[in-house]
Design brief:
Elements: H1 5-11, H2 15-18, E1 21-24, E2 27-30, H3 31-43, E3 47-50, E4 57-59, E5 64-67, H4 76-94, H5 102-120, H6 131-145, E6 156-158, H7 160-166, H8 173-178, E7 182-183, E8 189-190, E9 199-200
Parallel strand pairs: 1-6, 3-5
Antiparallel strand pairs: 1-2, 4-5, 7-8, 7-9
Helix pairs in contact: 3-4, 4-5, 5-6
C-alpha cells in the first residue's frame, strides 16, 4: 500500500518542515507557502494519489502528487521525500507562468529535503564513493555550510553566484550538474533549460 494523502498533509503540518525558511535565488522556501500547498490539497486543487514507484513525483501539468510505494505511516525519510515534491507543488502555485527553471526548482527541492532530514536528525549524512552517495554528501555539506541545519540559518539567501562557491571543493559530477551556473542564451544568468546551449561560468 502506498503512502496516503494523510501522510502528505501530516508532512505539511510538521513543525520542523514549517520552520524551514531560506531563499534559493528568487525561490523563497517558507512554511507559510508550504501550508498553501496543504490548503490546495484539502480543497482538491492538488490531487494526491498512491504511486507504484519507490520515489514520489509531482506533475505540474495535471497537479497530481504521486506518493511513494511505502507502507504508511510515513517516517522521517519518507516525509523528506514528500516535502521535496511539495516544494515543486509550491513553485507551481506561486509561479504559474513557469519563470522558475527546472534546475532551480530541483535545487530548491533537494536543499529543502536535506534541510528537513538534518533538522530531524542532526547526525544525518551520506557517505560512500558511488556517484549518488557523493551527490547527497555534497548536499549535506552545503546545508551545513549555510547553517541550514538549525533555525539559525533561517532567512539565508543562496544566490546563484554563491551556490558554486558554497559547495565542497571535491564536488560530485551529479552535484556539479545540478548547480551548473551559466549565461543563458537570452543573456540572463540562470540555470540550464534542457534545450538551451550552455556557457559555463568559470
Amino acid at each position: 500500500m502506498p503512502l496516503t494523502e494523510g501522510d502528505v498533509l501530516d508532512t505539511l503540518s510538521d513543525s520542523v518542515a514549517l520552520g524551514i525558511e531560506f531563499y534559493v535565488d528568487k525561490i523563497h522556501i517558507k512554511g507559510e507557502y508550504l501550508t498553501t500547498v496543504r490548503d490546495h490539497i484539502r480543497a482538491g486543487n492538488i490531487l494526491v494519489k498512491g504511486g507504484t514507484q519507490d520515489l514520489a513525483f509531482y506533475d505540474q501539468v495535471t497537479d497530481v502528487l504521486l506518493t511513494q510505494k511505502k507502507s504508511p505511516p510515513a517516517n522521517d525519510s519518507d516525509r523528506a521525500l514528500l516535502l521535496h515534491e511539495c516544494v515543486h507543488a509550491m513553485i507551481d502555485v506561486y509561479d504559474p507562468d513557469g519563470a522558475v527553471t527546472r534546475h532551480m526548482g530541483e535545487l530548491a527541492a533537494y536543499l529543502t529535503q536535506t534541510t528537513y532530514s538534518v533538522r530531524k536528525n542532526p547526525s544525518s549524512n551520506r557517505n560512500g564513493t558511488a556517484p549518488w552517495d557523493k551527490f547527497w554528501g555534497d548536499l549535506y555539506a552545503t546545508v551545513r555550510a549555510n547553517k541550514l541545519d538549525t533555525s539559525a540559518g533561517n532567512g539565508v539567501r543562496i544566490a546563484v553566484g554563491d551556490a558554486r562557491k558554497s559547495a565542497p571543493a571535491t564536488r560530485s559530477a551529479a552535484f556539479c550538474e545540478l548547480w551548473r551556473f551559466h549565461k543563458r542564451s537570452d543573456g540572463r544568468i540562470g540555470w540550464a533549460d534542457p534545450q538551451e546551449p550552455i556557457s559555463v561560468e568559470r
